[in-house]
Amino acid sequence: MDLGLQGKRAIITGGSKGIGLATALTLAAEGAKVAIVARNEGPLQAAAAAIRAKAGVEPLVLSADVASGEDARRAVEQAAQHFGGLDIVVNNAGTSAAGPFEQVGAEAWGADLDLKLFGAVNFSRAALPFLREAGGGAILNVTAVSGKTPGASSLPTSVSRAAGLALTKAMSKDLAADRIRVNAVCIGLIRSDQIERKWRQAAPELTWEQFAADPRHGIPLGRIGQAEEAAKVIAFLVSEAASYVTGTAVNIDGGTSSVL
Q: H-helix or E-strand containing 38?
């Protein structure tokens, strides 16, 4: 299937590692022009080298703090100027910050909301003029299954992710007239630096394949997912192949969540 991504111009936050980098690689392989955004220059340059080696294209590298509205505006404007416009925004920046309600202080609440919720707000708002100028486009918010089914000791991240889902639905209705589609993906257990640290700390005697397939994870499909698997779903949702899909949130969790 031709996803219709050839020549599309995309900016991806949290693009130096994990799902963000996998998404950049997938979009680039489909012919899109990609800009990757992260705070730290070292990982950004390593990601750019990986994209050059695997996809054979030169990504635009942008260092920015997504929680800063000014940084977001600058990064988006640089990407739009470099590419001659913008078609796709992938709001992927985020970390997992989870604990019991009574142990989460005001500073942790603020930092989590700034990163996950307002990061998406900042980049989406900065990109709107360019998406409208292009005649439409796609915004994809990367959230987590905990936003749909928050568990005990999942704060503040489950609340930030739930807010991201509400943001996705509301934006999809506000921006539909401009032919700007807004969707989300809800991530479950996907291989990442954090998951790999857990593996090495909890079960260093196991290979990755053995750890990923441990039934104690409770994943119906029987294993932890790969970042590339999430990236393929994201690529579809921002592509022309999903031209009639907006305002939805797709679980990428191996069947773990109990809700659609």
A: strand 33-38
Cis peptide before 156 (omega within 30 of 0): yes
Closest CA to 142 of 23, 224, 33, 7: 23
CA gap 256, 222 in Å, rounded: 10
* Dihedral sign computed on CA atoms, order 228, 191, 216, 204: positive
Length of the chain: 260
**Residues paired with 155 in a beta bridge:** 99
Measure Cα distances from 139 to 12, 20, 151 in Å: 10, 14, 27
Q: C-alpha distances in angstroms, 107 versus 99, 113, 146, 231?
A: 14, 10, 21, 32
Read off the pLDDT of residues 220-255 as tens digits, 9 standing for 90 and up: 999 999 999 999 999 999 999 999 999 999 999 999
Ramachandran category for residue 4: left, alpha or beta (phi over 0 → left; psi -120 to 50 → alpha)? left
Rounded CA-CA distance 187/86 in Å is 25
**This prediction's pTM:** 0.97
C-alpha 72/C-alpha 114 separation (Å) is: 12
Q: Which residues pair with 54 in a beta bridge?
A: none
Nearest-5° angle of CA 44, CA 49, CA 52? 125
> 155-156 and 98-99: which strand pairing?
antiparallel
Tokens of residue 73, six digits? 């505006």
